[in-house]
Amino acid sequence: MRTIAFRQALREAMEEEMRRDPNVFLMGEEVAQYNGAYKVSQGMLDEFGAKRIIDTPIAELGFAAIGVGAASNGLRPIVEFMTWNFAVLALDQILNHAAKMLSMSGGQFSCPIVFRGPNGSAGQLGAQHSQAFENWYANIPGIKVVSVSNPYDAKGLLKSAIRDADPVVFMESEVMYGDMGEVPEEEYLIPIGKADIKRAGTDVTIVSYNKMMKVALGAAEELAKDGISAEVIDLRTIRPLDWQTIVESVKKTNRLVIVEEQWPMASISSEISYRVQKEAFDYLDAPIRRITSADTNMHYAPTLVAAYLPDVPRTVSLVKEVMYMKK
Amino acid sequence: MQTPFGKETYLYWYELMLLLRRFEEKAGQLYGMQKIRGFCHLYIGQEAVAAGLMTAINDNDNIITAYRDHGLAIAKGIPAKECMAELYGKATGCTKGKGGSMHFFSKEKRFFGGHGIVGGQIGLGAGIAFAEQYQDTSNVTFCFFGDGAARQGMLHETFNMAVLWQLPVVFICENNHYAMGTSVERTSKVLDIYRLADAYDMPGDSVDGMSCEEVHKAIDRAARRAREKGGPTFLEIKTYRYKGHSMSDPAKYRTKEEVEEYKEQDPINHVLKTITDNQWATEAEIEAINEKIRQEVEESVKFAEESPWPDVSEVYKDIYVDQNYPYIVD
Questions:
Q1: Average model confidence (pLDDT) for chain A?
Q2: CATH no. for residue B283?
Q3: Can you give the pTM of this predicted structure?
Q4: SS (H, E, C) chain B
Q5: Which of B94, B132, B320, B327 has the highest number of chain A CBs within 10 A, making it the mutation to test binding with A?
């Protein structure tokens, strides 16, 4: 199978859907003439023209609203945020308008829109450019939240998101756009709402998503050297949460560790922990444990960035704790 | 009195404004009886804006507004009984009892809501217009907001893009002089709100909102400009609400004299005087209109009273188009 970059997988998803449906268009900062701040939309202006690949002013609230309004009147916008950190300015439109359009109108006006862009930290970017927002959006009824970890999933899920009749928040990562991965030439879609077992195992379940999947898979690799078989689940969709896949795995492994980039309070791991204790209480041989970002703001120095984020050694160590292999 | 508008127009204006007035008076009364709950913002005093608008636009044109939405919704064609049922929260309401007073919608009538976040609908209106331009229609979108919303960042971001992209939208600020209890003078040095358009190279105009004629003329000019691909216009329509901001507002921030001054310019009285001066209707014919409206409002109340509440299963409906969405239920 051919291998392509993450950014190309995303681009192919958008290009294929734009060829398929003339009502799909892309708008955002630097998406057209500049070819995308992270080159995700490179070449799309040439193929689709300025009517469908639209550079916006730096006005997240305003262009998000224009997207939501256009979606309510029959179009299927893809709104790119340069980062989800900036999308906070547009939260009113996502939370108060896109997510509520269908219900406030008694089912009359739907809002088929995709908000997408990179999420989470990306090196030494300081406090305002390093936040992961999955749990913020996952709290909102009326939207779906997708957060992808590799090119194959990115393409299949973005295509599904663009075709979805409901608003979808789609989260990528600056540090993954260059990642290479196998993506078939032929068309495929991945359904929203299905987690994926990325590595099968029997001793412990590790759940993660987005770029923390690298930590989860890296830890599983290390653990294998010690004879520990970890099953690694990539959530891929955060809302709706495919908790059944997690529960089935935990019933087999009896242990659960969650690795995520959220802050700990009211995070995705909080919700997963609730669900697993409710659905699989008698199957647990150890407390559910997690590694999140530090419950602080991100600082700049490389030592502080490393200390803030989940990593492989701490994940390995935590798994060994739930295996009762160390004190 | 000489007027470029004819008998039919005046009779239409009279009947429409009287319906809006009587509907709102009844809504206020029912609110006092706790038949209507939640927040409730009445349109009384501002009827000439809706009337002048309706004679200047087409059926396929779009309207979006804020939470003071009863008047524009009824004017655009949502039946009064569906509006009253919505105020009651009944299943037969214009949004099935899900929106309430602040969120009237009708896809059929191209009424894009009733929105409750001040200024949020300004960008939505531009987006609705964006879709019309994208589909190459000649439909114009009329995007309403109050003087309070003119202070939101949304207005400025939207104006900038609407002009840049020449969107077929008419922005209409219904300046009723008070953002809840705070007067225009207390929130900006710029008292002529229409001049905000100057910063974005958008045509802007100030309009007498107590006059159906002036509202019609201004909206007609702006609509033609938008339809002929001439881009957006900003109209500041100076109007006045006779009642408080919402049902719970005694409006102590303004004088009785000020309210009386506007009531003397009441658009319904003005239109009625034009009709009688021109002998376009007899006293009996006017009385017949009054009676028809009285009955329509009474029937709307009867309809609302007799309609069922939404079934509790509706809690989990209309959140997603996706019928199989797996809600977390425990």
A1: 98
A2: 3.40.50.970
A3: 0.97
A4: CCCCCCHHHHHHHHHHHHHHHHHHHHHHHHHHCCCCCCCCCCCCCCHHHHHHHHCCCCCCCEEEECCCCHHHHHHHCCCHHHHHHHHHCCCCCCCCCCCCCCCCCECCCCEEEECCCCCHHHHHHHHHHHHHHHCCCCCCEEEEEECCHHHCHHHHHHHHHHHHCCCCEEEEEEECCEECCEEHHHCCCCCCHHHHHHHHCCCEEEEECCCHHHHHHHHHHHHHHHHCCCCCEEEEEECCCCCCCCCCCCCCCCCHHHHHHHHCCCHHHHHHHHHHHCCCCCHHHHHHHHHHHHHHHHHHHHHHHHCCCCCHHHHHCCCCCCCCCCCCCC
A5: B320
